[in-house]
Amino acid sequence: MGHSRRMHFVGLDLAWGEKKQTGVAIVDPDGRLLHVGIAQDDASIIDAVAPFTGDDCVVAIDAPLIVKNPEGFRPAETAYNRDFQRFDAGAYPANTGNTLFNPPRVAVLAAALDLDMDPASKSNRRAIEVYPHPATIVLFELEKTLKFKKGLFGERQRELLKLMTLVEGLDDASPRLRANRSVAWVELRRRVEAATKLAQLDRDEDPVDAVLCAYIALYWYSRPDDVTIYGDFETGYILTPSLPPNLVTAPRRRVVPPPNDELHERLTRLTTLLEEAQLELKTIRERLYRL
User: Fold this and answer.
1) Strands (E), the chain
2) Is the domain of 156 the same as that of 12?
3) pLDDT exceeds 90 at position 221
């Protein structure tokens, strides 16, 4: 994909509903952070990105984009979780049984912005589904995800500031991201440093994730051979920088040939069911924790 002077990379850390805020970030092909902030409902999100989506653009969104399955996990999530769950970066199940994904909010936004949702498309205006957590594992060579989403205030603040420092270090990466040259980013960091309440961290973590989403779009645009697309356009997909072999935290067992194909199929099916059940249990526990 060739660079365009008018190309923009938009990152959206999309809330599942319009009552909660969405992080918004814009990056240009040279890695300049042009905008970082928040929006609320769909109309305000469209207004925020409108100046940057009229021409060539990639809009990278942290939310399920294509959801066709009536229950359980999408095939993309199952494949993705096999690689990233061990880093505490597992994806939650998205299905049409959840009214939030029937239809997905992000698909409605993509249609309103007239964006092509197929990652294999040659269109110059596209929307893609991304996930910041696995990107941090790959980009920053982390053993586990940073815990800035929940927990005690002090730990969350330290982890969020650590993430912001790592993002600023992408100034030396390829492609580069010049976050710390943005006045809005510098002010965002000052707010996080001065925060005294969990609500303040809740307010400021979404724009940081949005910046990561925008960078993933730039990374894909600049290094298409270094990303993995789990799933497909038909059943849903997740795009993320590829996990290198040296980040595997434990050696994989040697695969022993099964006695016959039937037993192999049963073992594979049961393994998948167990993985899905573990993630579903984690989701239920987290929801109960919030009540």
Assistant:
1) 8-13, 22-27, 33-39, 57-61, 125-129, 227-232, 236-241
2) yes
3) yes
Q: Please give the backbone phi and psi of residue 22, each rounded to the nearest 5 degrees, phi first.
A: -120, 135
Q: What is the pLDDT of residue 6?
A: 79
29 CA to centre of own chain: 20
Say yes or no to pLDDT of 249 above 70. Answer: no
Any idea what the Cα angle at residue 216 is, between residues 86 and 160, rounded to 5°? Answer: 65
Question: Looking at residue 63, what is its pLDDT?
Answer: 95
Averaged pLDDT of the chain: 88
Could you please report the per-residue DSSP string of 230-253?
EEETTTEEEEEEPPPGGG-SSPPP
Tell me: do 120 and 211 sit in the same domain. Answer: yes
Contact between residue 259 and residue 266 where contact means Cβ atoms under 8 Å apart: no
Task: Look up the domain containing 288 and give its range.
Answer: 253-291
Positive or negative, the CA dihedral 72, 77, 79, 80 is: negative
